[in-house]
Input
Amino acid sequence: MINLTLTEPPVNTPSRAQRGKVLRAYSKAGILAGVDENLIRRTVGAFIAAGIDPALSTSGALAKEIRANQVALLGAVVNAAPAEDLFADPKAQTPGEVHVNTPRWDVNQKFDFLGKLVHLVITEVNPSCVILGDGGLGKTYTVKQQLAKAGFKEGIDFEFFSGTATAAGLYRLLYENNGKLIVFDDCDAVLKDPTAVNVLKAALDSFEVRKVSWISSLRVDGLPQSFEFTGRVIFISNLDMSRIPEPIVSRSISIDLTMNAEEKLGRMEALLPTLETNVALVEKEEVLALLKEHRAEIKNLNLRTLLKAIRIRKAYGTQVDAKGELIWRELALFAILS
Output
């Protein structure tokens, strides 16, 4: 991640290629409606000041940096000018844009809501939910926590699947685990295959009877061509909401847990007492303080990063080097910044 600050580009008018890449990047970041020419121009300037020519980068890479800096980018504009100057049509603001401008819930409230919404799928109030957001911040942990709280047993009441699956494999999986709660954890292939999406559309529909059919010359050996699906499905993914097929989103409770660096650190702080319980809380707080100090340099800021550093802190304790400096600090930084 780089730090972006809105600024005028060296040349007042960006090139068409620079402008087009930044506009597409805002779109991929889920921030398109109403983004004006002033914001595009100053975002081009922000990238150039950071040593990146938007015309020579991909819109996907630019979108990632825009998401990571969304408060700095959009917040700066909102604080500097009336909302109508930023949004040509204020009614066209997306929920994501409104969240950036006027945060309503802190990150720990979001995870509390996540638990409650997952409970609705567990108790068959809704057939499915889609949980999105950066990896390593507790999405899977929260789902498993709710399953355990409900007394569910893996292999009996629910199944976890990750990796890849073909459309035919998905059909078999749904048939053989019918009636259970099925969790797809980082199994993004089923969301990218149009045939698999059609199978899921039928399985997750809102009709009282959800009939799933496989009518193809490529038969799924040993299975009927159709069956009534009575199970539930939870998708856990690191994909952006814009990359989830609309039929899946519209049939599911959709939960976007995308976070900026400050929210990630806030989530880590809330979980700190429950992590690595064989390490004193004060020592874990020292590690978190180190991550906060260097957050701008850390490419993958998540719970795994924190755990790695805590274990290094525990292993080296109060040992110092020849200069009298604590060994664990530089060692932890080396491990997480390399």
About this structure: The chain has 16 helices and seven strands. Strands lie at 128-132, 158-161, 181-185, 211-213, 226-228, 232-237, 253-256. The radius of gyration is 23 Å.
